[in-house]
Structure formats: C-alpha cells, structure tokens
Amino acid sequence: MTTVERAEGLVGSGTGLLDRERIIAKAGFNRWLVPPAALCIHLCIGMAYGFSVFWLPLSRALGITAAKACPDMTLLQELFTTTCDWRIASMGWMFTLFFVLLGVSAAIWGGWLERVGPRKAGVVAACCWAGGLMLGGIGVYVHQLWLMWLGAGVIGGVGLGLGYISPVSTLIKWFPDHRGMATGFAIAGFGGGAMIGAPLANILMNYFKTPTSVGAWQTFFALGVIYFFFMMVGAFRYRLPPAGWRPEGWRPPSETKSMITQHNVHLKDAHKTPQFWLIWAVLCLNVSAGIGVIGMASPMLQEIFGGKLIGHPELGFNALSVEQKVAIAGIAAGFAGLLSLFNIGGRVFWASLSDFIGRKNTYYVFFLLGIALYASAPFFAQIGNKALFVASFCIILSMYGGGFATVPAYLADMFGTQFVGAIHGRLLTAWSTAGIVGPVVVNYIREFQLAAGVPRDHLYDFTMYILCGMLVVGLICNFLVKPVNPKWYMSEEEVAKLQAASATGPVPSGSFGIGKGGFDLPAAIFWAFVGIPLAWGVWITLQSAVKLF
C-alpha cells in the first residue's frame, strides 16, 4: 500500500465528503475564491525553502550552548547516534529529499489527482506534510536523524508534491482567460512560504526553548498543527467548474493565431511528444541556473564584495576580522531576503505577462535577459558596483520564480486542460533534476577555483559563464517548441466520457451563472485570510533587506 493510499484511507473515502462530484461549483459561485484556497496550501508547503532555520539550533540540540561534536562519525553512524549532535551538512540533505520527493510524488500521483479532484489530494497533502513534520519532531525529540529524514523529508516530500500540483489544473480550468496570472498567484505562495515560516519558526523556538531544549521539536509540532489547519481550509474551499464551463463572454483564442490548443492530449501520450521533453529541458535549465544562485547567494555576496559592504573597500574577505565577517553576514542575509521577494513577485509578474505576450515569448525573455545578466555579473563585481550586481540577481531570481509559474500555462497551451495537472506533475521531475545539477555546478566549480588559488572576489566568474551556457541550451530548446502533432489529440468522444457527459454528443458550454462576483465581500475576506500573514512575512523580509543599503 502506498503512502497516498494509506493517507487516503485515514481521511476516509466512503463518506463522499472528499469525492470529486461533491465539489462541482453551482450557480452563484465566485471563481476568485479558488486562488486563495491554493495559497492556503502553497504558503504552508513553501516552508520547505526556509527549513535551514532549524539547522543551527539542531546542530547543538544535545549540547544546547555548544555542539557535542564527533568528528570521526560516518553519516551512517550519524543516522542512529543519540550521543553526538548532527552536522549541518548532514541535515542539509533534507533539501535534496524535499525536492526529489516533490518531483517524484507529483509524477507518480498526478494522474490519481486528476481522477479524484483537488480536495482529496489537498487533504492527503495536508496529512503528509503536517504528519511528516510531527514525525520529524519525534525524530528530533528522540534524537534520531533517520526518523527526521523519514518524517519531514520523505513523507513531508510526498505532501509537497501533492500540495504543489493540487491547484494547478483547477486554476487553469477556472481562468482560461488568465491562465498565467491564476497559476502565478498560487505558485507565488510556494515562494512566499519561507518568508512566513522561517521567522515564525524562530519565534516559536525562542518561545519553547529551555535550559535543556533548543525548542526545535516543539516547533515542529506547532507548525504541524498550524499548517494542517490552513491546508485543510484550502482543500475544503476548492471547487471545480462543471464540464463545458467558460467565463461569460469569453471566447477561446484562435489556434491559427496562437500556440494555444483547444484539444487535449492524454496523460499516457504526453511524454511521447517532443514538446513534453523540450519544455522539460526548458524548465530544468532555467531552474538549474537560478537554484544554484539561491543556494550560494549569501556567501557569494560576502566573498565578492568583502569590506565594500561595510565601508572598507580596501579589505578583501580574508582580511576581515571575525566581527566584520559577522557584520557582512547580516547584510548578506538581507540580500537573500531581497532575492526571495523577487522570487515571489516574479511568479505573479511574469506569469501574468505571459497571458499577453505568450508563454514561448516569455521564456525567450528569461533566457535572453538571463544570459545578458549572468554574463554582466562578473563585470559589475569587478567595478565594485553593488547596486547593479544586486539588481541583476534580483531580476534573475524573478525569472527563476516566473519559470515555475509560467510552465503550467505553457503545458495547458500545448496539451489542453484535461490532464494538465498530471502532465505538470511529471514535468516537475525537471525540478528534481535541477535541484541536483544547479547546486553541484555552483558548489563544485567554486571549490575547484578555490583550490586553484583564485581570489575570492573572482571565485564565481567562471560559474556565471557556465550558467550562461546552460541558458543558451535552454533558449534553443524553447525555439524548437512547436504545436503538438494533431495525431496525439484525443477525440471529442474520449473527452466527453472523461467529463462524465454523454458520449453521443458534445458537452454543452456556457457560464451557467458561475464565476461572477469579482472581489465581493466573501472573496475579500478569504484573500485577507492569506494576505495578512504574507504581508507580515514581506515586512519582516524588508526589514532584513534594508541592511543592504
């Protein structure tokens, strides 16, 4: 029995409360209630980006004030030790577990999600993510690293995958007139989750800490409860449009004038097309470049600019005192916070822009502008222009986030909306691959350059040119994307059967009095429900980012 099946059994499928048919919208429903439901889930699972907030406290969970280090301990011994504190590098494997499991679970259970609907998938995601955090908390309490990996990393990773893709096809179906904008709003939540979760975790650990505890396991439990509540609210607010629904007055764009198909490609056939693998490569290469920068943003700024960050331009990184290094580390944390803001904003901005200029043109911008910015970064560093350097990477990170938010609409344009959630799930294996490739490229080239005696302010020059090369390959892949061959299209009869409509005639279309309302009072209240915590996270991040200037 799989993890999803066990979790599904826990929530019970016999009551009908989670059935797909139960969440078909009726006349009077406002479609603007769906994006904040997606945000409820994405803002919770987005804490995966902020998990490093636990590493320092957990590295002294036994010693409390100083780590009980065991330098000769192997990783296998570390998984089971109860007498030595964990190394930060070993806990860092959690990120690999998160993003590999996210891609794998989204690929495996994407088809299941399309069958059962977003509510059931959202509930299972809540059980896995919150339950995984709690099991991870038990691992922290009994000091068993393998149990923390299993709970938060593996089971939580499954929750990440299901939670990430649960709203995608739903939003695309609700907003055929603004596909990019709709998915941009939801997926922005994943980028914003760490802005809320990381400072919240710090507050909770400070509240729970005692002379004998760093407060980490209690924080895992508290976050598990909080996230379960918010994710369940989101899951139960999901609604699906009836088959054939379209916004009042909206007409599909002509296929001859756009790359937006009105047909559908079956899940079992999508990966057989060259378009799937070209878009897979487009996403993988865009993300590989960006994710490598995210992982090294703080040390990169410190090593390149050194004393320039604190008014001592004559001092390189190695010449700084311990106190000065602490000072520039605080400034670099502001840089990382600023990048996270642009990561989030880019998801909404670029995805919304793609509704007007097209998905393929949006990726052209990502690659062409990205190549120019990566190639210019060493020059900006050489002339010591911190403002241009920071601005370059803020734009780069906005396009990193924009790539995630734009790709679901790109897939819907190519393969139709019937299986877009499941197809998107399979495509997210590109993210899992990028999560390995990007950091490896940046980290290992840095180590090679350091061993070769390259000055710290030039450590990343060669890396930037390698990333440019990756983006050139991505640009070529994007150029090669063409409309899907009609031989892969499903027939109207096949689509009608899947939509539970009559197989003998077309599915009736119309607005059916659904989707109206705009930002009425219920929608405004629900948006405030998710917007206020997000605004708090933005404010905390801005307070950190202002140190840069």
Characterization of the model:
This protein is mainly α. It folds into two domains: 24-247 and 518-549, Growth Hormone, Chain: A (Up-down Bundle), CATH 1.20.1250.20; 259-498, Growth Hormone, Chain: A (Up-down Bundle). It is built from 21 helices and no strands. It has helices at residues 3-11, 34-45, 55-58, 75-80, 88-91, 93-116, 118-141, 145-165, 168-174, 179-208, 216-237, 267-270, 274-305, 322-357, 359-382, 386-415, 420-427, 429-451, 461-480, 492-498, 521-545. α6 (93-116) packs antiparallel against α17. The longest helix is centred in the middle third of the chain and has 36 residues, at 322-357. The protein is globular and about 70 Å long. The termini are far apart. 48% of the residues are buried. The model is unreliable at 1-14 and 501-505 (pLDDT under 50).
Give the tags.
549 residues, mainly alpha, Growth Hormone, Chain: A, 2 domains, globular, disordered N terminus
Structural class: mainly alpha
| Radius of gyration using CA atoms only | 24 Å
CATH superfamily of the largest domain: MFS general substrate transporter like domains
Q: Count the domains.
A: 2
What percent strand?
under 5%
Low-confidence stretches: 1-14, 501-505
Q: Biggest sheet: strands, sense, closure?
A: none
Number of helices: 21
> Tally of extended strands?
0
Mean pLDDT: 87
How does the overall form come out from the CA principal axes?
Answer: globular
**CATH fold naming of the largest domain:** Growth Hormone, Chain: A
Tell me roughly what share of residues is in helical segments: 55-70%
What is the correct CATH architecture of the largest domain?
A: Up-down Bundle
Order of helices and strands: HHHHHHHHHHHHHHHHHHHHH
In whole angstroms, the N-to-C terminal distance is: 54 Å
Q: What is the C-level CATH assignment of the largest domain? A: Mainly Alpha
